[in-house]
Amino acid sequence: NAGVTQTPKFRILKIGQSMTLQCTQDMNHNYMYWYRQDPGMGLKLIYYSVGAGITDKGEVPNGYNVSRSTTEDFPLRLELAAPSQTSVYFCASINQGSGYTFGSGTRLTVV
Amino acid sequence: QKEVEQNSGPLSVPEGAIASLNCTYSDRGSQSFFWYRQYSGKSPELIMFIYSNGDKEDGRFTAQLNKASQYVSLLIRDSQPSDSATYLCAVKGQTAGNKLTFGGGTRVLVKP
Description:
The complex is a heterodimer.
Chain A: E1 4-7, E2 10-13, E3 19-25, E4 31-37, E5 43-51, E6 54-57, E7 64-66, E8 76-78, E9 87-94, E10 101-102, E11 106-110
Parallel strand pairs in A: 2-11
Antiparallel strand pairs in A: 1-3, 3-8, 4-5, 4-9, 5-6, 7-8, 9-10, 9-11
Chain B: E1 4-6, E2 11-14, E3 19-25, E4 32-38, E5 45-50, E6 54-58, E7 61-66, E8 71-76, E9 85-92, E10 100-102, E11 106-111
Parallel strand pairs in B: 2-11
Antiparallel strand pairs in B: 1-3, 3-8, 4-5, 4-9, 6-7, 7-8, 9-10, 9-11
């Protein structure tokens, strides 16, 4: 039981490049989330999903896209990377009720 | 805009003392309240959650909730150097999706 797995752990992108952050969970959780955390700040919700095929925007969705084709996977796509997207990205999941289980995070730098 | 506010700290406490962290929230309809601990460079980990007014204890940690005053607090008793971390308050509101809104976190430093 690996929990929530994120890849890659680190990535440096050039301005204008694109990439996909991967997130997989093996707990059969329905709800999955993508947050970003800027230095010294709390977490801001980017996108979330309540089940396969269903996604919705969070607080800061601009510049990102998601898909949820299976219960296990919830990738986050960055198109045309900008320096403002330099951050640490966390994926999380929950079944219902109690708190999130977080992945280990992806540290992204856009230069 | 639903907000969760925390003092950023750092909150410096001597080893063995009680650390007291506070969190206020703006959404009066909020249902559930969570405290996460985050070590530098790591992901948040759940310490405890509370739903009802009053106190909830788990080991050295006590969460206190006052919905009328819209605040939730965390007490860490017998603070240890290993408790040095950032503590994030998170609130689940009334909207669908089990979404959590996080505060900016309070950095705690426990000095031996």
